[in-house]
Amino acid sequence: MRNRAKLWLSYAALLVVLAVSMTGCSFDVSVPVLKELVLPGQSSLANASGLKTNAEGKIVLGPLSLGELCGFQNATTFQETVLTELEDSITGLPALFLGSMKITGVLLNEIEFAATTGDFSTLDRIVLELRADGESTGAFVAQNPDGFGASIGLVADPPYDLVADSGGNCIEPFYTVEGDIPPEDVVFDLILHLTIKYRVGLF
Length: 203
Description:
It contains four helices and eight strands; from the N terminus they run αββααββββαββ. The protein is α+β, with helices and mostly antiparallel strands. It has one domain: Jelly Rolls, CATH 2.60.120. The N terminus is likely disordered.
C-alpha cells in the first residue's frame, strides 16, 4: 500500500513537472495558405510596354491582391481552424498535448513565395503588404539585383503577430514586384513560416 502511495505521488510529481515545463513553450510550423497563385507573364499581359516603371526603368507590377486569409482573427479561431488541419504535420510535440494546449501567440517569421511553375529570376524586388479591414498593418520587402530563383523569402523583423496585428479581422496580402516581367506566367504557392506559442493545462 505504501509503495502504491509512493507511485501515485511520483506520478503526480511528474505531472507537475510536465505542467511547469510545457508552460510558455513554442513550436515552428509552415502553413501553405494559398496555392496555385499566378504572377502574369508577358504572354498574359495585353500591353506589357504600357506598364509603369521605376526610376531605374524597371517595370512595376502591382499592388495585386492575393485574396483574404482568415483563421487568424484570434487564437481560438486559429486553433480550431488552421491548427486542426496541421495536426498531422506537427512534429516534436506529443499528440496528447494537442487537445489540451492553449494558443497564446501566432508569430509570422517569414512569408515565402514558392514557384511551382517557372521562377522569379527576372524580378529584383518584391514588396508584400498585409491589410486588415482596409488598413495596412505591415509590409515586408525582399530584393536581389541579380534576380531571385524559384523561391522568395520575405523575413519579418521583428516577427509579425498575426492575431494582435490583424485586429480581429481577416488579412489581405497585396504584393508589388519590380524588374522584368517573366516571359510566361509563374505559378506559385504562398507559405507562412510561423512560431506558435502555447501553454498546456494538464489539470
